[in-house]
Write a structure and sequence with these properties.
The chain is α+β, with helices and mostly antiparallel strands. The chain contains nine helices and eleven strands. The longest helix is centred in the first third of the chain and has 46 residues. Strand 3 and strand 4 form a beta hairpin. It has a six-stranded antiparallel beta sheet. Strands 3-4-5-6-9 form a five-stranded antiparallel beta sheet, with helices on one face.
């Protein structure tokens, strides 16, 4: 439904009122062009045309009332007509661009749900929350990736960051997630999952492309396995302790760069008891800067907002992150938080699928349990 051009019409009537009260004649009439000009920025072609016709009609009436010279009145009405026609054209082009942008957003949202599939609030024994923001807000999708799914070998997850932006980065993210979802079900060994991803990237990536990633698994109660391939260290929050960065003792290169070094990924194990939480994230979070070029302090933010509800924790961190950068991120950012509930009956077995639960409003959720 077209929006009533209230403000442009109000401006036209104010100009007419000024002419009637001031009696200044031709001084006020050229200002009537402000009505259709403003309508072109806020309304569709029909609204612009209506405002233009109203302004031209009132301008002609005022010119006759004020005994304006014929050539001057004709020039004013001609200018009003030209502004109205230009406004109609501009409004038509703007409306067309808005329709195209809406279609692009719809396609991007469908692609996002196909690539980053929704995750339930619980997966296996874990409570889960994910927050994702693409730097290109219109596209709603970028080069950061995540997935979490139950497998015969326990719950497995990945968080990664593709070098570069745009469609090539999205294509690489889709490749990594596709290989991960297959290998996570097929391979008993977590290192074999990483090796499958590495081999696929080696065949498909360019020489300067790579993916940093953390691949983790929960093969048995109370224990996490983790492989870090050049990615930012996850943050572990024990139920009785401070936030700790999980540094790897044997750094491995990013996925896709194995051929350039003799370093190989190593498997790291760490305890993960009831009540513990683990946060995985991408560089877009810790490299977000404020006006003073200060990085966002993720560890401090996590310590401030940590609670026993992952969705609430990530919601608070995300709001604080956006406030830190002034409202818009300049890089893709992903956050994935898992928590092992203290109640033993809250989750299923390590590899058992869970029933999807409603997600918290505003959260973009990841890979759906099968």
């Amino acid at each position: 439904m077209p929006v009533l051009p209230v403000l442009p019409v109000l401006i036209v009537f104010l100009i007419v009122l000024g002419d009637l009260l001031g009696g200044a004649g031709m001084i006020w009439l050229p200002l009537l062009a402000a009505g259709p000009a403003l309508a072109a920025a806020t309304n569709g072609p029909r609204g612009v045309l209506c405002v233009g016709l109203l302004a031209a009609g009132l301008g002609a009436a005022l010119g006759i009332r004020d005994d304006a010279p014929g050539p001057e009145l004709a020039a004013v009405l001609t200018a009003l007509t030209a502004v109205t026609l230009a406004g109609v054209l501009a409004a038509g082009l703007r409306s067309r661009r808005e329709r195209v942008l809406a279609a692009v957003r719809s396609v991007a949202e469908a692609a996002q749900h196909a690539l980053l599939k929704p995750v339930p609030a619980t997966v296996g024994p874990f409570e889960v929350a994910v927050r994702y923001s693409a730097a290109a807000a219109e596209a709603r999708i970028g080069g950061d990736l995540y997935a979490l799914l139950p497998t015969p070998y326990g719950v497995r997850l990945i968080v990664g960051d593709v070098r570069g932006k745009g469609l090539p980065a999205v294509g690489t993210a889709a490749l990594v997630l596709g290989v991960f979802r297959e290998a996570a079900y097929d391979e008993p060994d977590l290192l074999a999952v990483v090796e499958r991803i590495e081999r696929s990237l080696a065949r498909n990536l360019g020489p300067d492309d790579f993916v940093t990633a953390v691949v983790a698994g929960y093969p048995r109660p109370g224990q996490l396995e983790m492989v870090n391939c050049g990615h930012a260290p996850p943050l572990l929050m024990p139920v009785s302790g401070d936030v700790t960065a999980v540094e790897t003792a044997h750094p491995a290169p990013p996925l896709g760069l194995r051929a350039l070094t003799d370093q190989t990924p190593s498997l790291q194990t760490l305890p993960f008891a009831d009540g513990d939480q683990l946060l995985l994230y991408t560089d877009g979070v810790i490299e977000a800067r404020d006006r003073d070029r200060e990085f966002y302090p993720l560890v401090d933010g996590l310590a401030r907002h940590l609670c026993d509800q992952p969705a609430r924790t990530l919601g608070a961190i995300h709001e604080e992150l956006l406030a830190h950068v002034g409202g818009r991120l300049h890089d893709d950012a992903a956050l994935l938080l898992i928590r092992k509930p203290t109640d033993a009956g809250a989750g299923a077995g390590a590899g058992a699928p869970s029933v999807p639960q409603p997600a918290s409003p505003g959260l973009l959720l990841g890979d759906q349990a099968v």
